[in-house]
Each structure stands twice: as C-alpha cells, then as structure tokens.
Design a protein that fits this description.
The chain is mostly beta strands. The chain has two domains: about 80 residues, no CATH class; about 160 residues, no CATH class. About 5% of the residues lie in helices and about 30% in strands. It has a seven-stranded mixed sheet, with no helix packed on it. Strands 1-9-5-6 form a four-stranded antiparallel sheet, with no helix packed on it. A four-stranded mixed sheet has the order 14-16-18-21, with no helix packed on it. β3 and β4 form a beta hairpin. About 0% of the residues have low confidence.
Length: about 325
C-alpha cells in the first residue's frame, strides 16, 4: 500500500537514538518534559504502540501504562528525571497486511527455480519481457508455431529455403514457377524487393490466383466454346513444345493470361497462333505478328484485345 511520509523499514530491530530530542525543543531529560521524538540515526520512526521496549533507569516500562506511542513521539506518563538512563528498541515497523506493493519484490529476493509454470498467468510473459535470442529452437514444441502466431512480414526471404538455384530470376510481381523438386513459387513484393515466395502445392497455386483446376500440357484451341477468352491458362510444356490456336472472334476488352507453371518455356517453347481470328499480337515495340512465342521460364503473359490487336500487357 502507499504511505504518506516515511516508508516503514520492515524486519529491523533498531535501537532508538539517545539522548532523546524533546518535543518543543531541546534535548535530553529535564525532569518536566514528557514528550520526546523517536529517531534512529537521526531519522524519524513510527512504531506501533506495542513494538517498543523502553527501559528507564534499568526498569522495563509497560506500554500504554508508563508511556504511549504517538506517531514518532514517545509520551511518558511521568516526566523522566534529569540524568535518568534510558534505552529503547523497536521490534520492526508497523505494516498493514494486504497486497504486496508494486516494485517491492526484486529479482535478488527470488530463489533460482522458484517461479514455475503454474505461477505464471496466461499472457503474463510478453515480448518485452524476453531478452534477445533467449528463445531457441529447443524451447519450441513441435507444431507450436502456427500461422496465427506469425506476424505479416515477420518471415523474410532469407529465412526460407526457396530452392533459388532452380528458379528463374524474379523480374516482376505475379510470376509463377516450379523448382527442381516440383514445388511451386510465386513472386511477391517483400520489403520493396520482388522475391520468390513458396506455395504449398499445385492446388494452392490454382486457388491463389483462381486459375481453375486444369493445367494444359498439350495443344489446344481457344474456340469460344470448350476454351474461351477472359480465362487464365496454366501451361506445362514439360512433355514437349506445343501450340495454342485461337479461332474465336474476340471483342474489345477480352483478355487471356498464360502462365508457365513448370519453368519449362525456354526448353519447350509454346506458340500462340491468332491468324485464324485476323488479329495480330502487338508487342512493346508496336511490332505485330500473328504468332507469339512463349520462350522465357517463369513468365506470366497477359494479352488484352484492343479492337485491332492482342496487346501484350505483361
């Protein structure tokens, strides 16, 4: 609890200073003064009524009969004579019994090993209570670190084994590729750097970008019925090069997205042919051609029809 004035010094058996300072001025017994200050090493003390053993001229005085304690004063019933001998001992200071005061228990007062798990309330150990590098892998239970325990951006690319040796250079956000183990990766912006981020499996890739459920592994035709515009096509040319033929008539704003999901386009090129539609492909240099070669690993190519040509957007 809080105290106004001096904070009690608990547990000390202390001897009162002598001669006593008289209430009202002066020092020592004079045969007429009855009230004297209680001091230890010059500091005031505030014992309880029965915490002081007072001895006057060799006789032990009885509290509440021969004297009373009033805050930091001892008030004798009869004024001690001039030259009388005296000593007094305080047996600890008075304390209320209640909640331990904030900051009163310091680390030096706690024995090693005395704070056990049952003594810790849930959520009582916060991040600011943990020293840097104090939690190592041996202290973490298997499966204890779940997705909800990881802050956004807390796991940086250098902490992940991305199989970088088998992935193409990360050039832009939205690239997809598979490494030599067949695991899929997506490029994302991490700390302002385009970085490969692993995805769990093919199903995760498909659901992540809503590309449907099928991966094209051979030649097919975008005819407006079986395969349509405004769709995303995941292409796997592991088995060999093949051609995508476009025969359906496009409308302004139609788009197609092709994605290299197995990092194979540079080995087995994919050719997209739009000659049957009368619409050519328009590249970054404004060059037009009825055929488009997909020949760079890990690419994601977006085509948008502008009313005359298929514009290569990405």
């Amino acid at each position: 609890m809080a105290y106004i004035g001096n904070i009690p010094k608990t547990g000390n058996q202390r001897k009162i200073d002598f001669p006593l300072d008289r209430f009202g001025g002066g020092s020592g017994f004079n045969g007429s003064s009855t009230d004297f200050y209680l001091r230890v090493s010059g500091d005031p003390v505030y014992p309880g009524a029965f915490q002081v053993m007072a001895v006057l001229n060799g006789s032990v005085l009885e509290p509440a009969t021969d004297y009373n304690i009033n805050n930091d004063l001892i008030e004798f019933t009869t004024a001690p004579a001039t030259g009388a001998t005296f000593f007094a001992v305080i047996f600890g200071d008075r304390l209320d019994i209640g909640t331990v005061s904030d900051g009163s228990i310091i680390a030096a007062k706690i024995l090693d090993g005395n704070i056990t798990t049952p003594k810790l309330a849930n959520l009582s150990v916060t991040a600011d209570k943990l020293a840097n590098n104090s939690i190592n892998s041996s202290k973490i239970l298997d499966d204890a670190v779940t997705e909800s325990k990881i802050f956004d951006g807390a796991i940086t690319p250098d902490k992940l084994n991305l199989g970088a040796a088998s992935l193409p250079t990360a050039q832009r956000v939205g690239q997809f590729a598979a490494d030599g183990n067949g695991d899929y990766y997506l490029t994302k912006l991490v700390n302002s750097v385009v970085t490969w981020v692993p995805l769990l499996n093919k199903e995760t890739v498909l659901s992540y970008v809503n590309y449907g459920v099928a991966v094209k592994t051979g030649a097919f035709t975008i005819d407006g019925t079986t395969n349509t515009y405004n769709s995303n096509y995941m292409l796997d040319s592991t088995g060999g090069a093949f051609q995508v033929t476009m025969t359906a008539t496009p409308s302004v704003g139609d788009f197609i997205r092709f994605v290299d999901v197995t990092n194979q386009w540079s080995i087995n090129n994919i050719t997209v042919d739009s000659s049957a539609t009368g619409a050519n492909f328009l590249d970054y240099l404004n060059t037009t051609d009825p055929q488009l070669a997909l020949d760079s690993n890990g690419w994601e190519v977006l085509l948008v029809y502008n009313g005359s040509n298929w514009k290569i957007v990405t």
